[in-house]
Every structure is written in structure tokens, then in C-alpha cells.
Design a protein that fits this description.
249 residues; alpha/beta; four-stranded parallel β-sheet; two-stranded parallel ribbon
């Protein structure tokens, strides 16, 4: 069973349904990549009583479960499998294969690894060297050492800023930058758009006046090999290919 949405993706992507006791309560949300596979699988909150009632052999997690929960599981000799953070597609395949091995699903991992390789090979260089600025409603952008940064470079874009990690860009800074195109994250999420810097009318007008596209929310919610499938599809979009405008909410 899995404790959080990102761990759900590994379990749903690798483990036969009849071997899955439960997923996290976020497995069916719209930003869950394999949400369709979770339709008829039990979903629970990551609480000790819930887990012990099901008596799993393995509990898979990325960020789910606090220290006390993890200790309680290990004290009861329940295997806790921690998924490592990954920051690039170079790290995605090795982590997929490692988790597959740990779950006794090496064959499934090999199948997904081949699909991953095919998806990566199918990504079109639609950026053509244009500068791109990633921006979220909360005012954050992403640097070259993040998965989002790697996604944009794989599409053939050049990052407008080279700051590391995720960093805040005030409306004043946004208005001073001049990327060729904006890549928007979570802009289709009405909850994320409440009372945030991204709602600033000057910022929205600036983005709307320039070429822009939205990264699918399931592609940027969790890092993993599975995001390559969406990235390959995105690279076929006329929007990313032509730099056409898209309305900004």
C-alpha cells in the first residue's frame, strides 16, 4: 500500500491490482497521473490504525506519513520502502528500476522503462532555443536543477533565469523579465489561484500578451518516469510548437 500521491504512481504503475491493499486518499485526484487505474482500489488516510487493519507486507512512501507513523510500522516489522527524490530524467529510470526490484516487480519495471525510453525519444525540440520562464500562481519559478527545469530543456527551451531550485519572483521582477514564452504551472487550478501574486492584473496581462502554455498539472505534481509520457504528448501540441497564445485564467 502507498501513503501519498507520489508513491501511488509507483504502486499503480508497477503492481498488479490484486496485490494492492490500498492507496492514499489522493490517488483519484485530477493531478494524479495514474488516477484512472485507481478507480476501484481502496483509498485510505495514512493513519496507523488504517494501516494495521490491512496488515500490508510493504508500505511505499515519498513524503507521506510522519516520523512516528514510520517508526510504528518498522517496529512492527512492516517494510517501509522510501522513494528517492529525483530532479532529472537521468535519475528517473534508475529509480523506477530500483523500486521495481524492491517490490518484486522487476518485469513490470522493465516494461515501463522501455515505454519511458520510447517517450523520451519521441519528445520534439519545440523550444528551438527560445527562452522560457516557468511561473506559478504563488509566484515561484524553477531552476535548471529541478525536474521542471529539465522538462523545459528537454523541450528545447532555454531557461530565462539560472537560479537554483524553486525561487520566488515578485510581480515587479516578472514585469522586468522578457522571456520569449511563459510556461505556466497550476494556473488551471482555481484553488491555487486564490489571493496569490499570479492574480496580479499586471502580471496576468503581461503573460496573456506573450506566447505561453500550461504544463499539465499531473506532470508537475510528482516527479517520476511517468511524467515523460505527458511530456512527449505536450511536445506535439501546436501551442508549444508554434508559440501561440493561450488565455490566462
Amino acid at each position: 500500500m502507498s501513503l501519498d500521491q507520489c508513491a501511488d504512481q509507483y504502486v499503480l504503475g508497477l503492481v498488479p491490482r490484486n496485490q494492492i491493499l490500498a492507496l492514499s486518499d489522493r490517488a483519484r485526484l485530477h493531478d494524479s497521473n495514474f488516477r484512472d487505474r485507481a478507480e476501484h482500489v481502496r483509498r485510505i488516510r495514512p493513519q496507523l490504525e488504517n494501516l494495521l487493519a490491512l496488515n500490508p507486507d510493504v508500505v511505499v512512501r515519498t513524503w507521506g506519513g510522519d516520523v512516528n507513523l514510520i517508526k510504528a510500522l518498522t517496529d512492527r516489522h512492516i517494510k517501509v520502502l522510501n522513494i528517492n527524490d529525483i530532479y532529472s530524467y537521468d535519475q528517473a529510470k534508475p529509480e523506477l528500476l530500483r523500486i521495481g526490484q524492491e517490490l518484486d516487480q522487476a518485469a513490470s519495471a522493465q516494461i515501463e522503462a522501455r515505454r519511458f525510453d520510447q517517450a523520451m525519444a519521441a519528445i520534439r525540440q519545440v523550444g528551438k532555443g527560445r527562452s522560457v520562464l516557468y511561473y506559478t500562481p504563488t509566484g515561484y519559478s524553477a531552476g535548471p536543477d529541478t525536474m521542471v527545469g529539465d522538462m523545459l530543456r528537454r523541450l528545447g527551451f532555454r531557461l530565462e533565469t539560472q537560479d537554483k531550485g524553486f525561487f520566488y519572483l515578485s510581480p515587479e521582477v516578472i514585469l522586468s523579465l522578457k522571456p520569449d514564452i511563459f510556461a505556466l504551472g497550476f494556473y488551471e487550478d482555481h484553488y491555487a489561484m486564490r489571493r496569490v501574486p499570479g492574480r496580479n492584473p499586471l502580471v496576468r496581462a503581461r503573460i496573456a500578451s506573450m506566447p505561453n502554455f500550461t504544463l499539465p498539472v499531473q506532470m508537475i505534481s510528482c516527479n517520476g518516469w511517468f511524467t515523460a509520457y505527458d511530456l512527449a504528448e505536450l511536445s506535439k501540441s501546436p501551442l508549444t510548437g508554434s508559440g501561440g497564445l493561450k488565455a490566462v485564467p
